[in-house]
Amino acid sequence: MADLSIDLAGIKSPNPFWLASAPPTNTGYQVQRAFEAGWGGAVWKTLGDPIINTSSRFAAVHFNGQRVAGFNNIELITDRPLEVNLKEIYETKKRFPDRAVVASLMVEPKREKWHEIVKRVEDVGVDGLELNFGCPHGMAERGMGAASGQQPDLVESQTYWVKEVARTPVIVKLTPNITDITVVARHAAKGGADAVSMINTINSLAGVDIHTWNTIPHVGGKGAHGGYCGPAVKPIALSMVAECARDSRVGIPISGIGGISTWQDAVEFMLMGATGVQVCTAVMHHGFRIVEDMIDGLNNYLDEKGLASVTELTGKSVERYSNWGDLNLNYKVVARINTDKCINCNKCHIACEDTSHQCIDMLTGADGKAILKVREEDCVGCNLCSIVCPAEGAIDMVEVDSGEVPMTWNERQQEIARLNGSHSEAEVV
Amino acid sequence: MSAFEEFDKERREIDELLFKGYHVAAIREDLDGAKVTFVMGKPDKGQVTLLLLTADARKYIVTRYMEGKRANA
Q1: Shortest Cα–Cα distance, B69 to chain A (Å)
Q2: Are residues A224 and A97 in the same domain?
Q3: Residues of chain A whose C-beta is under 8 A from some C-beta in B?
Q4: Is A228 part of any domain?
Q5: The domain spanning residue B30 has which CATH number?
Q6: How far is A395 from chain B, CA to nearest CA, in Å?
Q7: Which residues of B touch A419 (CB under 8 A)?
Q8: Least Cα separation, residue B5 to chain A (angstroms)
Q9: Range of the domain at A360
Q10: Is A253 in the same domain as A358?
Q11: How many CB atoms lie within 10 A of CB B67?
Q12: What number of CA atoms fall less than 13 Å from residue A15's CA on the CB side?
């Protein structure tokens, strides 16, 4: 059995699964129930001046029978006084001393405001702080959350103010609602952040009711943009984690957040550079006990891989995440259809014929039965046929030796530029 | 003509010129493709220009050029 414990910039927890700052971590009752279920840590729902929420707050995007492919919310930070939260944090930490309890914080971008809340929160024994520079709705209209997080200089200065007084590690939570997340991550690091976490939710409108013409959700006939999360955002979050992990100018640990629902998702984030992960939507969908499967699954995976500690995963795939211009243009894969597993639905043929490179032929086999066959010389290896294929194992993408030396786009352009004696085209970096 | 056949036609033209002893002197790329200038010895001894249209041929010509450079290095 592998060691699942992690140490994120000095914040220790018995496993890498933390609850993200969100409705599941609103109260001591909830967080303690989560810890009973096995969660390694929890980031308390954001503390700040207590807000007033609307009624009707959440919405989900269901896709082709998949419930909650995406989740949208317009709920704000805590609506309870600070002292009430602090009392429950103290009790929770006392009862579960081995779990990580991190307080998410959000106040106006004023030095004295940050100093006040940091001191009061640290006095009850939290293990760390997470600065919420990410919430895109409501609080951003008041100059906090994502409004702060979209200004790198403000992220840096607020982090610096926190670090002036903080005695525990400081995590800066980043908004994805920005062109290049590494810029903000770098400024968080410059401000003294001990770690960054990402991603907070993405600006969203879950839908419009085509019968009533109301937004989804709506509050008495009016709506406002919310924050999107859940499985649909995972690829976006993973890319942002990877971008920060491979940027040496960021250079601080990462807590991965965004659509993580299973232990496999967690492994992917860790391979791409996260030290641990935070989960919200999957818990809101299925409850705290999903962590049991996550712990079991991760344990078994590590055993199968022969790894003694989960920390050995962190960053292992980062070097494989590169720039498009550094990919080998002479690498080649082609599709191969296994006729014994093919159900002749023709989806691959239609997809290829209508939207790709017209290289899957509908033929008749020697036995008179219809077969689908790829003209491999025309196949560009786009993967589309294998993506749309509903029959498991019916289409393999097979690596073929092109017989050519490796050549990236950047190498190609450099060669042409040298040949011509001048630069002909910009490199892709 | 299939995409492969279009490429194969251009590839054979490239291979034929290289086989005859031409070498690549310049590759100019624009909206219409890659204009490749082949020369035999000095430019005045013979010059041929190919306009390569297919992506695979535009990849192939530089691959061949790089291999040639490495072989002569």
Answers
A1: 10
A2: yes
A3: 329-330, 357, 359, 375, 377-378, 380, 404-405, 407, 411-412, 415-416, 419-420, 424-425
A4: yes
A5: 3.30.920
A6: 21
A7: 24-27, 65
A8: 8
A9: 324-400
A10: no
A11: 13
A12: 25
Contact A175, A149 (CB under 8 A): yes
A295: Cβ contacts below 8 Å, ≥ 6 apart: A4, A15, A17, A38, A263
Q: Would you place residue A423 in the very low, low, confident or very high pLDDT band (cuts 50, 70, 90)?
A: very low
The reported pLDDT for the residue numbered B46 is 85
> The tokens of A51 are what?
């807000």
Choose, out of A409, A416, A418, the residue to mutate when testing the contact with B (most B CBs < 10 Å): A416
- Tell me whether B18 touches chain A (CB under 8 Å): no
If asked whether residues A261 and A350 sit together in one domain, one would say: no
Mode of pairing for the β-strands spanning A226-229 and A66-73 = antiparallel
Q: Is B36 within a domain?
A: yes
The reply to whether A348 belongs to the active site is no
In whole angstroms, what is the distance from residue B60 CA to residue A385 CA?
A: 26
E strands, A151-220, are: 170-173, 195-198, 202-204, 207-208, 215-216
Q: Assign residue A392 the CATH number of its domain.
A: 3.30.70.20
**Rounded alpha-carbon distances, angstroms, from residue A24 to A172, A280, A418:** 20, 7, 59
Number of domains in chain A: 2
Q: Could you tell me if B2 lies within 8 Å of chain A, comparing CB atoms?
A: yes
Of the listed A135, A229, A379, A385, which one is catalytic?
Answer: A135
Residues A278, A19 contacting (CB under 8 angstroms): yes
Both A234 and A357 in a single domain?
Answer: no
Probe site for chain B from A419, A425, A427 (most B CB atoms < 10 A):
A419
Count up the domains in chain B and report the number: 1
Residue A127 lies inside a defined structural domain of this protein = yes
Give the pLDDT of chain B (73 residues) as one tens digit per residue.
Answer: 789 999 999 999 999 999 999 999 999 999 999 999 999 976 567 899 999 999 999 999 999 999 998 888 8
Q: What's the one-letter identity of residue A372?
A: L
Asked whether residue A144 carries a pLDDT value surpassing 90, the answer given is: no
Using the Cβ of B15 and the Cβ atoms of chain A, whether some distance falls under 8 Å is answered with no
Same domain, A167 and A205: yes
Specify whether A130 is located in the same domain as A101.
yes
Q: What range does the domain containing B9 cover? A: 3-67
Do A300 and A218 have their domain in common? yes
Q: Which residues of B touch A411 (CB under 8 A)?
A: 66
Could you give the 3-state DSSP secondary structure of residue A178?
Answer: coil
Least confident of A341-355, A368-382, B37-51: B37-51
Q: Is the pLDDT of residue A89 over 70?
A: yes
